[in-house]
Amino acid sequence: MKSDSSYLSYLSLTLIVMEKFFVDADISRARTISTEVYKSAAFFEMAKEKIFAQSWQFVGDTDMAAGNGSCYPFTLLEKYIDEPLLLTRDENGTLHCLSNVCTHRGNLLISEPCSTSNLRCKYHGRIFHLDGQFKSMPEFTEVKNFPLADDNLTTLPLFQWGKLLFTSLNNNYDPDVFFKDMMERVSWLPLQEFNYRHELSKDYYISANWALYCENYLEGFHIPFVHAGLNAAIDFTDYTTELFYPFSSLQIGISKTGEDCFDLPSSSIDYGKKVAAYYFWVFPNLMFNFYPWGLSINIIQPVTVDSTKVSFRSYVWKKELQNTGVGGELDRVEMEDEEIVQQVQKGIRSRFYKHGRYSVTREKGTHHFHQLLAKFLQ
Ligand code: FES
Ligand SMILES: [Fe+2]
């Protein structure tokens, strides 16, 4: 009897979740996703495992561990997923992404970037090779069945595009389904020549849910209303959105004047267009903005249900083009986006707002994102 009632309550909860997160695949009929996504602490927590742990996340680039013996500790999605990880380059030059937690009693292994021949825990002296394999441990000769496989550091997958590195906590999806379409579209760009510029990179803190920030990014519909400067530089009528199923999309900004656009090779599918910017989005929280000067990667990091850290990471290709074109005013555009997204965060709290509808011509990127949110949260 008890199991019947708990089964029924589980069933009713499942039906509530399915109803809340249903987004019609037909954009002309669809309503926007439930505002619970942006307001509910329970769904914010649920997204950790159901969305973020399933996806591929940005680690940094190969220059962070340039020489053999390099170790670079980092925290994946600090304050949210908060997973301590370690990028190493072993004596053969192979890169590894490892758990940065000692398999003895859980001490953090490495706290600062360093160069070393092995990883030695400062708590009781356990030593690991740079590929994460257990090497030695003092005072453990009497311990039976030791070492076992789980005495090695957990190894995470690494996916490399040019010098950019990504990892996945669960490794349930092939990285190709996230990145392949973007990589093919700009395959002519010499990504290895792009250099990270710390002084041009910046973190922004906004009072809004991470998904509101993403869905704003995914439509150019608001450009004429929110970004007067950007609107003066790009041709809104030629602004396009392409969906790459399943997990990414592309928006293309066409230059009004023809100045400050890419010098596209004839091999590019976009050859002949005055492309001022490629805005690639990769589910759930990565944005790759290619401008004639280089690449600005935006990493959208949830902090609380209504606050988000947005990290801009700049990789410069052509220094002389840095302050020109639509990619020259990123800070102002970001301020304009933050202001509107924070207003929306206040608006969706209203008891009178439950759902909206989508423009079929201008909001297919946002509709695609909402469908993915609905699918993963179910
Ligand atoms: S926690 Fe690392 S050796 Fe004990
Ligand atoms: Fe915007």
Identify the notable features of this structure and list them briefly.
alpha+beta, 5-stranded antiparallel β-sheet, 19 strands, 26% strand, binds FE2/S2 (inorganic) cluster, binds fe (ii) ion
How is this structure best described in words?
The chain has 378 residues and is an alpha+beta fold. Helices cover 25% and strands 26% of the residues. The chain has helices at residues 2-20, 36-39, 41-50, 176-185, 210-217, 223-226, 228-233, 330-347, 364-377; strands spanning 57-61, 70-76, 83-89, 95-99, 114-115, 119-120, 127-128, 134-136, 155-156, 158-161, 164-167, 195-196, 202-206, 240-244, 248-254, 275-282, 286-291, 294-304, 307-316. Strands 12, 13, 14, 15, 16, 17, 18 and 19 form an eight-stranded antiparallel β-sheet that branches. The longest helix is centred in the first third of the chain and has 19 residues, at 2-20. The radius of gyration is 23 Å and the shape is globular. It binds FE2/S2 (inorganic) cluster (FES) and fe (ii) ion. FE2/S2 (inorganic) cluster binds next to loops.
What pattern of helices and strands is seen along the backbone?
HHHEEEEEEEEEEEHEEHHHEEEEEEHH
Number of helices: 9
Instruction: Name the shape in a single word.
Output: globular
| Major β-sheet annotation | 8 strands, antiparallel
Which range best describes the helical content: under 10%, 10-25%, 25-40%, 40-55%, 55-70% or over 70%?
Answer: 10-25%
Small molecules bound in the structure, each named once: FE2/S2 (inorganic) cluster, fe (ii) ion
Q: What is the terminal separation in angstroms?
A: 27 Å
Q: Residue ranges: pLDDT <50 for 5 or more in a row?
A: none
- Would you tell me the structural class of the helices and strands? alpha+beta
| Alpha-carbon Rg, integer | 23 Å
Mean pLDDT, to the nearest integer, reads 95
- Beta-strand residue fraction: 25-35%
